[in-house]
Amino acid sequence: MTDCTPSNSKKNKIAIYGGRPKKPIWRFFEQGEEIDKGHYIAICLACRQTFRPGKTTAMEKHIISNCLKVDHSICEAVIYMVEAREREISSGANIKRQNNDQTILEDFYESSDLSKERKEDIDTALIKAFSTR
Question: How much is the pTM?
Answer without folding.
Answer: 0.56
